[in-house]
Design brief:
486 residues; alpha+beta; Heat Shock Protein 90; 5-stranded antiparallel sheet; 5-stranded mixed sheet; 12 helices
Amino acid sequence: MMTDKLKFRRHPQTMRSKLFTVLIIFVVFALILLWGFQVFMLDSFYSRLTKSRMTGAAAQIEELYETDTHTFTDNLSAISLNNDFCIYVFNENGNSVAKIHSDNGCIIHVINGEALTKLYHTAVENGGECFETATLSEFKGSREAEKAVTHKHYRLRDRILYAAVKETTRGTLIIILDAATDPIIIVKSVLIVQLLITSIIMTLVAASISNWLAKKLSRPIAEVNRAARKLTEGEYDVKFTGESYREIYELSDTLNQTAKELKKTDMMQKELIANISHDLRTPLTLITGYCEMMRDIEGENTPENMQVVLDETARLSSLVNDLIDLSKYQNGSEKFEKESVDIDYLLIETVDRYQKLMQGKDYTFVYESVGPTFAMCDKKRILQVIYNLINNAINYCGDDKTVIIKLSTTAEGKVRVEVIDHGAGIAKEDLPLIFDRYYKVDKVHRRAVTGTGLGLSIVKGILEKHGAVYGVQSELGEGSVFYFEL
């Protein structure tokens, strides 16, 4: 049982079936709404409308009674004909004023005075008017009504009765109106048949359209999914196409860009492995060779040979440390402790250290500064950035072997550090990739004069953790300017 539940969770409803279900539910809801208003609530709507018409007719009768005495009955006949009402009007003494009969099923013309009096008192108790819904069989107190029912001259339908007591200048006027509900019953029967046919047609049409639409919408997504499976299998040359809808087109475009970046990353990863293997193999080969030589050849265990082993061991250790640092910056596990640091003092110490370190190798270090300048940063990590940028400049400084370090401030008050060389420069298309791991502008891996070749990637990781602005400005044959702002 648990296995079945897990299988169900792993295979949710497809877009096609879900869209089909949603559209069918929508159509069913629309039909229920239509049936509710047109059939089940039709009685209520008809009743309200009829009561409103009765109230209006009573007001007309009251006005005619006060203003028109000669044609009063004729006007009542017109009101009865226009509204399909039976009308019974009498005065406060119970004397009939007018009686208009328009329907064979009328109640008010076959009931006795006791029933009419009851309607009158009900209207008085309700503030001058009242509505009743009844059938002829409910008025058993009337001998005429009983006779009509017995002889089946009357159709036992619900009737709407309205009684109004009007105070006029000619005295109290009691108006009784009777309206049949037969029309609504007929209309309801017709509507039920029509809605039944319409519901069947709408359901079939909706099912066909929703099935077609679901196929049309799901097909491009299914194609994108098939292509995405190839992408997960390492086939990065796959092409995503989706021209049916804008959203699918945008998704395809995004996936094409993703495939392009994945292909690039895969190539760089292979290059990274090859380059690291090369950088690891070289010192290991030298260490192994010198150790074997010192073991097998008498007199080769000299301080010079031991120094070569120590230098290559240090280079190997430096490469491993750089790989560890790079991994920490990329996974976010390295913590930074920021403090106020005098960048000018930091650069003076660094330049002085490089001048001593590279003494006798014809390198020139030039430092240009605006004086003591402070910035909030992790001193140890920013020093690592400066070292790596200077190492990079040494490796690519060109024939003049000159490295320029410049300290300045920006208009926004930030501290700007620039490391400048006069080397071969970097092509425009290579600039966005220069901070990637082991990216090679000349596509030929060579051993760095100093450092491990991972310096710029480490620089990127540290500066991004500081939220610093960084970059490179370069042109072929004009050298390069690496900078960052804190």
